[in-house]
Amino acid sequence: MSKLLTIAGHDPVHGAGITADLATWAAMGLDGCSVVTALTVQNSQGLEQVAPVNAQLVRDALQAVLRDGEPAAIKVGMLGSVEVAREVNEFVAARRCPVVVDPVLSGSNGRRAYNANNACWLTALWAVMKRADVITPNLPEAAVLLGLDEAQVGTRLPELRALGRGAVVLKGGHGTGPLSEDWVFDGERCAVLAGPRWPAAAHGSGCVFSSVITGMLAQGWDVFEASCEAKLRVAAGIAQARAHGPGRPSTHAAPPLSSEYLPRFHWSRVGGVLPPAALAFAPLAHPLGFYAVLPDADWIERALSWGVRTLQLRIKHGSMGTSELRAQLRAAVRAAGEVPGAQLFINDHWRDAIELGAYGVHLGQEDIDSANAAALQGAGLRLGLSSHTPLEMLRAHALRPSYVALGPVYPTTLKAMRHGPLGLARLRDWTARYQPAYPVVAIGGISLARAPQVLACGVDSVAVVSALTQAADPRAAAEQFMRLMPLGPAGAGAAADERTQGVACV
After folding, report:
1. Average pLDDT estimate for 492-498
2. Before 408, cis peptide (omega within 30)?
């Protein structure tokens, strides 16, 4: 992929502007280049002076960058002057890559970030914003752009979006209350991301946010996925902000990520209200260990007899009649109920699972809206959720399930997927994001040969389908998988004891 381009100001203390953008992209594994629009005098205590770069020099620098190839995406931040804004407008108008505009109007101390009168400056800035696929104003910036009070901005997302050519992400870090809420609107869909409001602000958080979105768009993600990634990284960056003076610390551009920083994601409507936080589903009674995903009750009974204690019954909708389906579900639940330590999850058929008193239910993302999470929780069932993207991870977190599944790790032909395989590097990264709050199951294309590498990514469990059901000797395959994983339930019985005693002899 070609390099990303940031067109923004220079911060001598490395908290914001081009250096923050480049550090953020490096943390994402992306290459970047930069063109400076303004030199600033600032430190941890705030912005003191802005000296715009000569507009001709900005033009020459942009053309020099272009001679090395078209950028993969462009992030526009502080512009500093009307003349520079006009040059940047001409440049981005000729590009076909994604463009993100972060409309920087002032420093955190209120000092203006441009050297023109307000009317001329806003006219020049609006022209650049019209080229943007995504604009990322905060509440004070949105109020100035629309000529409104900050309290009115939240219901005016369509007007904000109309300032660009694509989507708006309204950042809520300057709001009040225990939650920081960001709103995303692309003209058709609207969503809100909510996370704890950290007690202290951090310099450069807006720059990191918009540069993450730029990096995600360059990789083909949409604005909703990109905003989820940005919200998570900025939350962690603020919580782990680096102090370098007596004033505000700087947002960490490459923070370690964990479940502590996961925000909630909800689809919404413009002017909607964020739903209350969900109560957590019951935790697992035992460690997951080896996880077998099986097609019928007979397979469930056989796997239980081999010592497998975490299982999923996956029967595709429409593959059998209602009476046969009910008989399969009933037989599987009964068989698991007779084995101490067994954890059987029913895939999709949540109403039957409640009625039959199953241990748990596993749902895909497409089932979240149709399933009654409150009914499942009220019945005491455990919940497992699949997730394949940053958005789906945050949507799962909003329901606070008993475990989460990531996949497909490798290509698989068993199920049509909208997304490509994760690979080991992304599996490792995303597993760390879910922990320690959630046990993580890896699934998709995992064979016995691949399982050790998958487990080395830090997952709590490996789930398999064809590696067991299509094995020449399914029992031997199950026993080999179980040896690879930490021992699961203490109540797994004699089969588990025999398995551990026999490891040294294999």
Report:
1. 33
2. yes
Contacts for 140 with CB less than 8 Å, ≥ 6 apart: 105, 106, 150, 174
Active site residue 319: no
CA angle 481, 301, 319 (to 5 degrees): 100
35 in helix, strand or coil?
strand
Q: Which of 145, 149, 116, 150 is nearest to 130 (CA)?
A: 145
Specify the DSSP class assigned to residue 186.
-
List 248, 264, 314, 499, catalytic entry? 314
d(CA 135, CA 151): 19
Instruction: Tell me, yes or no, if 314 is annotated catalytic.
Output: yes
- List beta partners, residue 264: 194
Q: State pLDDT tens for residues 310-328.
A: 999 999 877 888 999 999 9
Select which of 250, 268, 386, 402 is catalytic: 386
> What pLDDT is recorded for position 502?
29
Query: Residue 172's closest CA among 138, 201, 204?
Result: 138
SS (HEC) of 333-379? HHHHHCCCCCEEEEECCHHHHHHHCCCEEEECHHHCCCCCHHHHHHC
Residue 505: pLDDT above 70?
Answer: no
Over residues 158-169, the mean pLDDT reads: 96
| Catalytic-residue membership of 415 | yes
Residue 506 has pLDDT above 80, yes or no: no
Q: Is the dihedral of CA 413, 417, 423, 424 positive or negative?
A: negative
Three-point CA angle 336, 386, 25, nearest 5° = 150
* Catalytic, out of 112, 316, 415, 426: 415
Asked if the model's pLDDT at residue 385 lies above 80, the reply is yes
Count other C-beta atoms under 10 Å from residue 13's C-beta. Answer: 18
Positive or negative: CA dihedral 17, 168, 230, 112: positive
Q: Which letter, b or e, does each residue of 394-415 get, where b requires 16 or more Cβ atoms within 10 Å of its Cβ? A: bbbbbbbbbbbbbbbbbebeee
Q: Chain-wide mean pLDDT for the chain?
A: 91
373: tokens are 């999470």
Query: What global pTM score does this model have?
Result: 0.92
Phi and psi (nearest 5°) for 92? -70, -25
Number of other CB atoms surrounding residue 256 within 10 Å? 11
Q: How many residues does the chain have?
A: 506
Pairing of the two strands 382-387 and 360-363: parallel
